[in-house]
Structures are given as C-alpha cells and as structure tokens.
Specification:
260 residues; alpha/beta; 4-stranded antiparallel sheet; 8 helices; 35% helix; binds adenosine-5'-triphosphate; ATP-binding; Nitrate ABC transporter ATP-binding protein; ATP hydrolysis activity; nucleotide-binding; ABC_transporter-like_CS
Length: 260
C-alpha cells in the first residue's frame, strides 16, 4: 500500500511576531506567536476584528514587511521580498489614474517585457474574465467602485500569480455589489484554482467564500481557531448547520474580545 505523503503547505508562518514602534516610542504588538499554514489551491479567509493583525500578516506573506521574529515560508523557502507568484489586491483599488483600464491590467506583463499587442490581448482576456471588456479604454475615474475592484482583480490575475493575497478587497463596496463580486471571485477561483488568502471582518463573507476560516483576535494579534468549512458551493444560508456555524464564529469572536 502506498504511504501517505505529507504535502508541504504553500505558505507557512511559524511563531510570527511583529512589533511596531510608534513615533512616540510606544510599542504595538501586532502579531504574536502566529502559526498559519495555507495549502495549494485552498481558499482561506483570515477573519477578525479591526487591529488583530490580519493586514500585517498578509503584508509579511507578500514580502512587503518583515517579522520581528519567526519564519515566513513560501514553498518551504524564506520570503525575502515581493514576488510575482504572490499577487496582492488591496481594499483601495490602487489603479493608476492616468492609465486606461487595459493599461492598468497590462502593468505586470509590461514589466515582464511583453510587447504592445501581446499586452492588449492579455488585458482583454483578463478583463473578459471579470466582465469589463467594454471598459478597456476607460480611465479608472469613469468606473464605479465595484468595477474598479474588478479591474484590480484582473490586474493581479494578469501576473498569473500562484496565490492571490486579498486585503478586504470588497470592504468599501455596497452590499449588493459585494455579493456579486464574491460570486465572481468564486467563479474565477473555480476556473483557475489559484490559492486565495482573503482578509475580512465579515463572518458572512468568510462563510460564503472559505474552505478554511482562520479566526483571529487582537492585543496581541493571534489565532483563536482554524475552522474547516465543508458546506457545498454555491452556498446558501438556509442550508443545515449554516446558522449554527455562524453562531459559533460570532461566539468565538466575542470570547476573543473578552480575552482582551
Ligand atoms: N506600519 C505600522 N506602524 C505602526 N503600527 C502599525 C503599522 N501597521 C499596523 N500597525 C498596528 O498593528 C496592529 C494591527 O494592524 P493591522 O492593520 O494588521 O490589523 P487588521 O486586523 O488588518 O485591521 P483592519 O481590519 O482594521 O485593517 C494595529 O494596532 C495597528 O495600529
């Protein structure tokens, strides 16, 4: 009989501590003793209240910051800086205002030396995936918030990253657009099967999206629980056990508040 082979996680953070020293000399312990693993093709949500260090953790994995102590590993190798294989999507749409939507999406391929025609084709392909082909030649200010965030996702995808690191990407959108984009993101994820790490403070959003929810709490930021979500997709709130799971996560978050 074949032996079970332990598969190495794509992302591993071990004993991660990140302390910030504020201008006045005060120290803020944003993360302490954080061990999180993310496996290839998983959709993981980091869920927790404001200030529990979700963005800090994501920035460490993106290579935009370094831990005070602890290890950040990608495919078993220490993260030393940003890399194409780890694409970041921020809450603010972060599109360059002087470039058209297509030119924004083609930014990564342009850095990688793709020619004009190839860039256009790639941009149109990725814009089609997020339903924005018609706005290829518009400027970002001509788009709604939801459309700008779609463009930002297309731009991240155009780099063909292995993992999408998404920092509350839908936080600034109205409820309806948010639900639409959640569905679109799942559709893209199911097609491409990228690994996704998605930061949110919405229990509802995490339960709709994730294979696993890493529940965090603050002061200092640490992991309370790592929950596997087994509901079939597409998910409906009316499915058996959904309400209980929601209650359980809210209770966890409340227990985290009381800890502090
Ligand atoms: N560059 C920085 N300098 C000083 N303190 C920082 C810095 N970045 C984060 N912090 C502090 O670290 C803690 C965690 O912040 P972080 O933004 O990671 O939390 P978060 O869970 O993502 O919050 P939110 O959901 O509000 O974005 C906070 O107390 C924050 O003030």
């Amino acid at each position: 009989m074949a032996e079970a082979v332990a598969v190495r996680p794509l992302i591993e953070t071990r004993g991660v501590r990140r302390e910030f020293v504020l201008d006045g000399g005060e120290r803020v312990l944003a993360l302490d003793g954080v061990d999180i693993e993310v496996h290839d093709k998983e959709f993981v949500c980091l869920l927790g209240p404001s200030g529990c260090g979700k963005s800090t953790w994501l920035r460490l994995v993106a290579g935009l910051d370094e831990p005070t102590t602890g290890e950040i590993l990608y495919k078993g190798e220490p993260v030393k800086g940003p890399g194409r294989e780890r694409g970041m999507v921020f809450q603010e749409y972060s599109l360059l205002p002087w470039r058209t939507v297509a030119e924004n999406v083609a930014l990564g391929p342009e850095f990688n030396g793709a020619g004009k025609r190839e860039r256009r084709e790639m941009a149109m392909d990725y814009l089609a995936r997020v339903g924005l082909e018609k706005f290829a030649d518009a400027k970002p200010h001509e788009l709604s918030g939801g459309m700008r965030q779609r463009a930002a996702i297309a731009r991240a995808l155009a780099n063909d990253p292995e993992v999408l690191l998404m920092d509350e990407p839908f936080g600034a959108l109205d409820a309806h657009t948010r639900v639409l984009l959640q569905k679109e993101l799942l559709r893209i994820w199911e097609l491409d099967r990228k690994t996704v790490v998605f930061v949110t403070h919405s229990v509802d959003e995490a339960l709709f999206l994730a294979d696993r929810i890493v529940v965090m709490t603050a002061h200092p930021g640490h992991v309370l629980e790592d929950i596997r979500v087994k509901f079939e997709r597409p998910r409906h709130r009316s499915v058996a056990g959904y309400g209980e799971m929601t209650e359980r996560i809210f209770a966890l978050l409340e227990s985290g508040e009381q800890e502090n």
